[in-house]
Amino acid sequence: MRYLLILLAFGIAAPAAAQDLGDRLPEGGEVETFEQEGLSGSVTDESDWQDLGIAIAGFATDRDVSTPANTSGTAALGKEIGRVVFNDLRNNGLFKPVGPDALPQPTFGQITSPNWPTWSNRSAEMLVHGYVQARPDGRLTVGCYLYDVALQDELARSGWIVPPRDWRRAAHKCADLVYSRLTGESPFFDSRIAFIAETGPKDNRSKRLAIMDSDGANLRFITTGRSTALTPRYSPDYSKLLYLSYVDGNPRIYVYDIGAGRQTLVTENANPTFAPRWSPDGKWILYSMAIAGNTDIYRVSASGGPSVRLTNTPGIDIGGSYSPDGNKIVFESDRSGSQQCYVMDADGSNQRRISFGSARCATPEWSPRGDQIAFTNASSFNISVMSPSGSNVRTLTNGWQDEAPTWAPNGRIIQFFRTERGSGKTSLWQVDLTGRNERKLPTPVDASDPAWGPILP
Q: Do the beta carbons of residue 208 and residue 229 sit within 8 Å?
């Protein structure tokens, strides 16, 4: 049994003098995971999982009672949980799920003893069952089971105890369980995305910092929009956000502590600073700083102290992104006369160009797997990927203006933002590494500069 604590609170000694934040975010709750022994079985045929049909029934309940999560009762909540699991698995292009609204509702007793003829007659190859129970302490217990219908066997099971407000996290964790068991890949649904929410006319946009779940739910605004915010990045433990703000009229980088609701400057410096990035262990912050017309990349400890200059060439060096092991940094530079991507060691040594040809390379982002680098093809404004050596370049999108890629925690899906031709309206999109499964992520207002965080701790 282990305990997962989200939105940990860490204090910052000295908040910035000028704040541009909204209401302090409520602190998160605990998600307790319990696992039971007896997991067994295997996927019937792992070669055809891309066309795998999965039936996802509504989650059953032993007692239909109202909870803060759903005043209509736990029976209605169970249906909602099934819908979240269905939408997670539907939107990644790997499965052919059928959701609870098109399926019979199992009883509580059938969760661990499926009525196999019901599901085999529907041509379902896999079956997801689950339950939700209201606990005496006010929390919810959510159980999730994955069955192979042909084998009539259980493949995986897990359960979570959550505060009512975190019921969607339990649903995402169920989807992660199914995804990982059937694909062998790391999960990504129980994660969050930071981005810039845009409102107002094209020539006078209000841009404020916002966060939401990986499926667009639970959107919260962090800043008020009184000053422009850009390029957010979650810390690896989700406790802080790095972002660029014009709160004092100049582009400067701040750290926003989510638990404490306060922000601090990354460096006390009058020069413009931008393009912040965390190191994988959260101990370092990369940023770019412009001095006398020259822009270079610097590194500073996340706890403060002097900065270390990592590049020192005429031109603009910007957008550093660490490799997952923290040993390398990919960045953008125009030192050759056009925007191209370069790789250097984490201490700034061994700088070498990796992108060539007519295309310009911008906003590079290293995959969590370490095997790919996503970047904006600044010649055609589409999203491309390449190996860390610069070989095997593939373009994944074909929009009017696609830019700023960010990776899902499992390194299989890339999120970016697209600007509409003419209107300037922006929206968030996702595409997988095949380039075939592209979808728009719903947001209540225009959105840009996405940053996908890791799996929630």
A: yes
